[in-house]
Amino acid sequence: MNPTRLYLQKEKEGFSPLLWFHNFKFNEMMFGIYGLNQKQSKLTLEFPEYVLSDNELEAVNYKYEDASPINKQLDHITCHGDGKFHLKTKNEDKDLYIHELKSITPLGPDVPIFLQFQILSDAAENYTISKKSPKKPSAQINLSGREYIVLRGAFSGINYELEKEMAHLLALLNDNKPFVQQAVTLKSNSFQGLFFWQKGILPDHAKNSRPPGTFASFMFSVENNMNLIKTFVFE
Fold it and tell me: What does pTM read for this prediction?
């Protein structure tokens, strides 16, 4: 997988980078989240983590007042071949690697879903326009004004039936109502990713009360068929 980017295409204004992914060597992957100002984002807030069964996933209720301030510059997020995940920051004094955890299985072409995530963007108007043209390979999501996206995604080994499982998962999570507006797939010699998204319009009360930035929830499978969920805000 070559470095791949996901952009917000803001009508005739231009493009704003949102996410990047890179399967930089066999069985290992890293990715990052751009900030509102086009540059690598700052990890501003962390919500309490949850360990939940599949049946409890939709019951998660996030309250802004429960989030703890972090304020560390993000470098990237890494998924190592041995199953270790961590966030790498650009902090110059300590805690360079934070939020480390270990997958129940090593990563490789045959591994089932090892990472799921959900992205809740800020309003399109809050992302600055890049002066550069989109780099290839890339995908663009048309968005403007106060529109935002909810994006669900997952990564597995390249030999796993990811599309089939994600279609089943989305049907369950949305009570068999359609979720998908568009989808993007990423493939390499070891991993594959699949993303679905839909748009909404940020209401007044959310615009004035939510912390600025991109919300990102990461879900990992842990022992006893449970799911560990970590949620952050990146500005």
Answer: 0.89
